[in-house]
Design goal:
This protein has twelve helices and 27 strands. The chain has 597 residues and is an alpha+beta fold. The strands form eight sheets. Strands 17, 18, 21, 22, 23, 24, 25, 26 and 27 form a nine-stranded mixed beta sheet that branches. A five-stranded mixed beta sheet has the order 4-8-6-5-9, with no helix packed on it. Keywords: Disulfide bond, Glycoprotein, Secreted.
Length: 597
Amino acid sequence: MYLRDPGNPRGVLQGHAEEVEYGRGGRRDKRNGDGGGVGWAADHFCPSLHGYGCLTWNMMLDFPQASWNVISSLCQPVVPSEGDNLAPVTLAGVRRGDLHPDAVHPGFPVSLIGDTGGLFIMKLFLLTVAALLLLVVGESTAERILSRRTKRELASPLHVGGIRDPFGSYCERRGGCCPGRDDLCTVPYLDTICYCDLFCNRTVSDCCPDFWGHCLGVEPPFIGTCERNGNKFLSGQTYKENCNLCTCGTTGRWECEQNACLMEPDIINAVNRGNYGWQAANYSQLYGMTLDEGIRFRLGTQRPSRTIMNMNEIQMNMDAQTDSLPLYFNSAEKWPGKIHEPLDQGNCAASWAFSTAAVASDRISIQSMGHMTPQLSPQNLISCDTRNQGGCAGGRIDGAWWYLRRRGVVTDDCYPYRPPQQTPAEVGRCMMQSRSVGRGKRQATQRCPNTDNYHNNIYQSTPPYRLSSNEKEIMKEIMDNGPVQAIMEVHEDFFVYKNGIYKHTDVSFTKPPQYRKHGTHSIRITGWGEERNFDGTSKKYWIAANSWGKNWGENGYFRIARGDNECEIETFVIGVWGRITMEDMHNHHHHHRRRHN
């Protein structure tokens, strides 16, 4: 087919197409229509809406007098600049044979690129025929249609960087604006892009700074700009300050959320300036979270029920041994290679599973005299212990011990931890089942989720026992049998602990109530010690392992005041024995040797 425009003074070229695709949902239809065409302009156009259907095309036109870039757009008229000298245009080489005059006219908004300086046959490349058919009755109808398209799927909003040149030339430098919605109508802007299409006006955040003045000829919808770190922001633009989102208001002032942040600089500075006996730090892995999110996602142990709290405490015969307890004791030094390193629960409220698995791992290693040193799997508990448990939304340690006793778990290497992405936290399908093989013992019925590991032995415990809240009895239990599990209350300042002997401070007492919150956590106590003060007094402390990774605290551990039930850490303390027989140790030792030979 041959299309020709012998020199229309307004540069209008009539083109025709049959197949129409409208919207982004992929529905195709064939319709007839008339009107429309190509509006030529050297730099920019003013959009308006009229009652006809249209197509959107992407193409490049080369012809003797000039080279034109065709912009993909909704078909809306383009008013050429005064004084433009538009050359006669002939379109040839159309590849589609089904084009005919009674189909819908396509619109070709274009912008002048420059003089080509040569004579050659103009080529028409249809890179995309992405058609958008708008059947509109008038301007108000079109406005209603466009108003339903309120979100750009692939938009890259102007965020955080600020407006360094709020009144610079972006759409003007581009050489043209685009009517309707065109996700290719962009200009590089800082480390992102901004838009020069009419749709950007639906969300102020992704328009180029000069869109309103250059493309629409109107004043911008914002009154002023906001400044931050030497950068200017337009009204409606945002940046995030720690855990709070700040928005540039129409008055030129920042409007910020007032959340209490997990990493609160005022609290960190107050602790470090005060004489509290410990130091605080700003942790990058916790920065940007609110205090509410930290308590919700970084703890995860539910307080025991009244029935569990009334468990009988075991009776210890302390007699003269009480005086023989050393000033300092560390399980890792008494049982080298048998005390496991702290893990990181991430944003998964499952300290109930991490502390249980850690204590059981240490106790089995000690009890087996090192023949069995499993790092038991918290994920096995999180995914499979679902009876009245919440996985990454919190759980009870008594439920965890029930599961470890009655069902058992495999190692962390066999069933590795899968931290939840961003928002916690799917429990995940249980991928490890077991069956009874008699005498209370269990055997795995599935292979390891980690297919590189074939060692799917099930490890179990005996019923846990509760210790007295007397610090001497807790110390003796740790020295004789290994680390214990404890429940504690975590306050807002504990998250920023770096080193020293922790005690809850009053640094947030002058702040609003949302800065003073606490939640229940469970940890593993591995030892104790004393620190002498300059005045001759001493500070007693527990050595405890957290589950926030080795980059937190003292290599994943913390020290906390001992003997006065700081943060209720001595209220509910648990010990346990592994379910181990000589046959288990023999089989494990034989299997271990076979794997390494």
